[in-house]
Amino acid sequence: MREKVLVIEDESSINTLLQFNLEQAGFEVLTAMDGLKGLEIAKAEEPDLIVLDLMLPGMDGLDVCKNLRQSQYMIPILMLTAKDDEFDKVLGLELGADDYLTKPFSPREVVARVKAILRRSQHSAVSSGPNDHQPKSLIIGDLKVYPDNYEAFFQDHVLELTPKEFELLVYLVTNKGRVLSREQLLSAIWNYDFVGDTRIVDVHISHLREKIEQNSRKPVYIKTIRGLGYKLEGPQ
User: Fold this and answer.
1) How many Å is the maximal CA-CA distance in the chain?
2) Which of 58, 68, 100, 157 is a plausible cystine mate for 79, CB 3.0–4.6 Å?
């Protein structure tokens, strides 16, 4: 079965171009020209990934992203923006987008990003299959992560994580005690270089802290190592 991608883009030329290139790459493609219609299709069809423009009529991309995440739809989202504005990029990531591209971009780059996001997300979500054994668990303090079952708990409460947040958490936990640079995390989780743009890592770390720390300003689990990166360790 072909993977399904929803393109929500109001510029017809870009919409058509993305649809053509994604279909040529083997994807089933759904399209919408405004935010409200895109949100409706996303919830009805639950595609494997959404390519979401920031500036849309009816409901803008940020509100579409926010609505999906608040409704617990954890579909990977690749955000498109015509604005070369750090605020827009960061806000989109804070609302739950997994990645972003700034216009103008090449269709090949979009296809490459879509494939990378899906490859990483599906790898994380692969189950070991039905068996009588407990899934492999990663436990640090009150944090429990089950990579094979794509589940994570903090203080026995289920963590609602986006695909990228889950991948990042698994990577941090499996590298407990190691200092990981932002560049290492970009390469491991996003599977490509951002040419020095590491803000995407900081935003996702912030998301995780909000979900697993009692006080995200005084983190116990995910520590910032100034000038180097991040390290996950257990409570002392």
Assistant:
1) 56
2) 100
Place of tokens 């436990």: 139
Q: Which residues pair with 223 in a beta bridge?
A: 231
Flag whether 179 is in a domain.
Answer: yes
Per the structure, the complete domain to which residue 93 belongs is given by 4-125
103 confidence band (pLDDT: 50, 70, 90) = confident
Of 34, 43, 51, residue with least CA distance to 68: 43
Pair (110, 22) in one structural domain: yes
Total count of domains within the chain = 2
Give pLDDT tens digits for 185-195: 888 887 655 54
Place of tokens 């590491």: 198
Alpha carbon distances (Å) from 183 to 80, 99, 116, 228? 22, 15, 17, 10
Contact 80, 6 (CB under 8 A): no
> How much is the pLDDT for 224?
95
Q: Is 114 exposed, middle or buried (0-12, 13-18, 19+ CB in 10 A)?
A: buried
Confidence of residue 216 (pLDDT cuts 50, 70, 90): confident
DSSP state of 188: I
Tokens found for residue 116: 């990378």
Is the same domain home to 116 and 11? yes
Residue 132 lies in a domain: no
